[in-house]
Amino acid sequence: MFYPQEMTEIEIIAPAKDLLSVTKALSGQGIFSQTDVNYLNAEKGSQQPNQWQEKATAYSALERRLQSILTSLDVQKKNPSIKEYDSIIEVDKAKAIVDEVEKKVKEIIDQISNENKHIERLKTILLQIEPLVDIDADFTTLQNAKYIHTILGIMPGENVDRLKTSLARIPHELITLTQKQQKAVVWLAASQDNLDVLERAAKSAYLDPISLPDGYSGTPAEISKSVKQSILDAESKIEKLKEPIAQIRLEKEKELTELLWDIKCSHLTTNAILKFGRLKYTYIVVGWVFSNHVDFLKEKLKNISQDILIETRATKRDKDSHEVPISLSNPKLLRPFQMLVGNYAEPKYSELDPTPLVAILFPLLFGTMFGDVGHGLILVLIGWLSLTGKVKIFKFLGGLAPIVIACGIMSTIFGFLYGSIMGFEHAIPALWLHPADEIMTILIITIVGGVVVLSLGYIINIFNLLKVKDWANAFFSHNGIIGVFLYWSLIGMGLALAMPQFGLPTLPFIISTIIGVIGIGLSEVFIRLIEGHRPLIDGGIGTYIVQVVFELLETFISYLSNSLSFVRVGAFAVAHSNLIGVFFILGEMVNPGKGIGYWLMFLLGTVFVVGFEGLIVGIQTMRLTYYEIFGKFFNGGGKKFEPLSLRPIDND
Questions:
Q1: Which of 126, 409, 489, 581 sits in a 20 to 30 Å window from 342, CA-based?
Q2: Which CATH class, in words, describes the domain spanning 137-218?
Q3: Where are the domains of the chain?
């Protein structure tokens, strides 16, 4: 629970005859993560083709083709009933089935595609013709003049005069057939000798020619009627073409769906085998398995063949264990918070899993900022409705639903502590305090809480470093022992100077602060000394002194800003109690008698506070978790455990 699951590296040498059985056994339980050792290949550099690479390529191509066929047949994506398989499907057998169906389907689909394209072209023509149906002129005659060049088209109405001016120096004829909504339909004619001038003038005036399709003639109304009939004929033809498609789907859907499953399984299997090392008669399989499943996996492999050789190596949690894949194992109640950790980074194998800490601090910080009995219960209800799927509008929360419930519960608890219910601050007695009435108290408390949380982060970091025997950074890094020593010394000195009435001794804190400053200033030297790096100082004494000054300044600013970041927790607690009060004021302005208008404004305020402010508080809580808390101890960078699976349903 507090660390990622313990892993054991396993190396398997299996005879070629047992290859598929071994691969299947390794994939069956979700306990084995494969390592790519393809470089361990005795035949590397050989001119002979790799049969598994060829099969993988063939399965990939067949999978794409079959997916395309199923899409053409309008078969919904689904997996067949899960079934066991003992061998991969033969490429030639699968290809023959795909070729046969593809030939039948492709011919019909191509015809349907051509008809659809034809319909799109006709609709484009119809869009051009429809505005012109009131013109009683034979467009065919206008466009097909024998001795002159003509253009029939649509242009902006304000450009007609400009077009006349452009053509003034050549003999021409320009007739405006109709003009509607600043668009003019014109017929333009000139001799063939003046073709270039006519075309340039028409283009500059933004004259858009109307292209009539072959086979259509007459007035715009007659052409429009003919085009509409052609569209209906094409649509009727498409419906007839869909009949054999529906018949093929009815006959082949189950067979093709199962074939796709077999091809995917075979493809995944060959891809897995390609990552195996290969000797002359055996294959080398390397990967990681959960330590508590090692004996089970050994027994399973030995049941396949006694010729299989197995070697295991337990892995220590040290700073060199970065190659070990990570799998977090937390109780069911904590698993939703793993998502928050995973969004930031996967912990290293040697690091503490921060999920339990996040499961405590995230709802606690949220509840402190959003304390209200009514609003908290609304969040619990929203999270529950999302979790159960009873209201579709809340399904967008997905995996966040349990976190929303936890935050809602904590908000409800703090609502009782603050004496706040649905924004009414004095409706119930406060078990602790009213944030709006004791602003300085809540701000000071949250700063103190922030110091405690930051100190906890420093302590966890020191523990992590000591665990992996990184002595240098454990003692002398900015987040190590010397860093937390300086942090506490500065806090002590600040309290002693700011509050002399409590009688805190100033001198010991001043001395400890000086020691801490010296320790931080020389931290790089000490780290290099312990790790055996030379030289101890890069760039000379002068450069190093300047560097130390700026590092100390950065450290002091970091301590201050990190601690004061938690002021926002108290500030949001105060703002939450006051924000809903704004809507009470607006409600009284709308309806002083507290009638329907007042309560509608109250309802609007509740939606705004729970929705918008709840989102803002969630973002602030995440920021504090990621940057102020994780930044002290959580480095991340682990590689997620990905179990080998040969079932497409697990990989889609």
A1: 409
A2: alpha beta
A3: 137-218
